[in-house]
Amino acid sequence: MVAGLDSGSWQDKAAVARKLRDNSVSKVKPPLRGIPDTLPPNSQSIPKLVLTPREVELTENYTVHQLLAKLRSRELSSEELTRAFLRRAAVAQATTNCLTELLWDDAIDRARYLDSLPAPIGPLHGLPVSIKEHQGTKGSNQTANGSYVAYVGKFQGSTLLCDILWDAGCVHFARTAQPQTIMHLETESNIYGRTVNPYNRDLTPGGSSGGESALLGIRGSLFVCYIVKGALKANANCASQGVGGDIGGSIRVPAAHCGIYGFKPSAQRLPIAGGTGHMFGRECILATNGPMATDRDSLELFMEVVLAAEPWRLEPSIRVAPWRPYQFTKPLKIAVQWWDGVVMPHPPMLRALHEVSEACKRAGMTIVNWDSEALDHKTGWDILSALYYPDGGREVLGLLEKAGEPVLPLTTFITKEQPNVKDRSIHEMWKLCAEREAYRTAYARHWSSTADQDGQEVDVIL
């Protein structure tokens, strides 16, 4: 913990974290000029007002694979690419409030080092990668708060996942915002305030990986590194690519809100150890890491790189399961869930589902309806919400109380307004876990039954 931060008001401590962020962004050279005093609702036009044509080209015109090819051939230097993304990330911060720190000095030093080598050190050689705030990275002495004021100034070492990306040759260049408790589907905290959507500043970029999705949405990164710590197992495009975390939608929701790609692998597939968070040791509901990117191929690249490192040798809870490319031999069969049996979507959402399903039909895919009412999603939520906080929210709320920071509305919703969030005995936990397994089994059998008529199970639910 940084000296002197064990006392003072929560406002004073939050100001320390914001000062660190603001000082890091102020290192941008040359300084940003041209950002309007009054921002338009849509921020997508702002980068071209501020960046050079070359910076716009590098951050807008290429996929991750194309940039990596240019880096390998030395047609492009990592330093030039990193500087372009650092400056675009600073524009993203000015328009969406998505950053918690810009790693200007560390990133440029790393890029120069990689450029000095006679050959690439790995498949991500020279590629800028952004990271969620609650993780540390190699090569710097960082703090992490996980959006808890009580943790402001807490030193944070690197995580196994970040180490793997580092060893593959990436350049960590930016750290991004997450919400209070890292368990909101929006992104707001008492430390950094609210992150907004780069397509419409009146809307949210989603959560909990909303800082990352906002950064990617304005192409301040192409590849991001995100982990959700809301319920982890113990030990646990402004960017070109990033890594997100997901337990209840924290990759999927931000990706949908900002028009990017995200992938939530199965739990215990990727490293999750390390980082700043809460409730370490709870195994009833497991979170997972996953990539977020501006193009689909980058998701597969991320999975290939991380699993090629055989992380299960260092984190034994990870399943021994190398990445296996899959080739479809027949048209996809897609089930459309028009509603979940609990909340009817608004007309614009139903229209979007209809348009996508019709487009899939025209592409030769088989479309069927998903019988959600038979699956009783309310029961699923009752089980899930109980297992999110089997201590009744005591640890999470205790961390907020420790610093005296206000409990935000979405934290209240998930911890205090759910009737099944209670302090559970071990026997109650056993019962809930048994109910969880029974519900999973029922869902799996329902899915399998979609092959009864034509012999082909549904591939995906829309």
TrEMBL record:
Protein's UniProt keywords contain Hydrolase: yes
GO MF annotation, one: hydrolase activity
InterPro entries reported for this sequence: Amidase_dom, AS_sf
Keyword Hydrolase recorded: yes
Highest taxon in the source lineage: Eukaryota
All copies of domain Amidase, residue ranges: 80-223, 237-461
Keywords from the named record: Hydrolase
PANTHER family recorded: AMIDASE C550.07-RELATED (PTHR46072:SF4), AMIDASE-RELATED-RELATED (PTHR46072)
Family that this chain belongs to: Belongs to the amidase family.
Protein name from the UniProt record: Amidase
Organism for this UniProt entry: Fusarium albosuccineum
